[in-house]
Amino acid sequence: MLGELLTKEECAGCRLCCAFEGYDLFDTPTITPAVRELILKEYSPEQRFVQQEGCWFLRLEREPDKDLYYCSLLDRRHGCIMGDSKPFECRIWPLRVMRREGQLVLTLSPVCPVVKQKPQELIMRKSAELAPAIFAEARACPELVRPYTEGLEVLAVDTTC
Q: Would the pTM of this model clear 0.70, i.e. be above it?
């Protein structure tokens, strides 16, 4: 989805977004019922989930002797086993859909080391291209929207609501 902003090769070479420390487990991607079914049927029949407030999340196992959890769908040599079918939040990373003062906004995570190196003009242009489709998916599935985190750069605002 991100194409020239973040290629599959750049993403696969990093995988920072596929690892979570104990304090940020709340940031694991939301799994919709349809994606949950797809995971169980096509990718990982033994996958366990946690349900919280009507949403599903992958149950992640802690690394031995570390406060670190890797996504259970990550093949550490080849990347995400789901490829282009991965959950919405993974497909748009490091972009995030958040709700700020009642409006949907598209933000940029400050932790992606690859996108941090990209020209701001490219980030803004690509965000503007992707925003309508991202906002449409977020409106159709509101559980994918996170509360706004103060200080994150807002790249686009949904003006259709």
A: yes
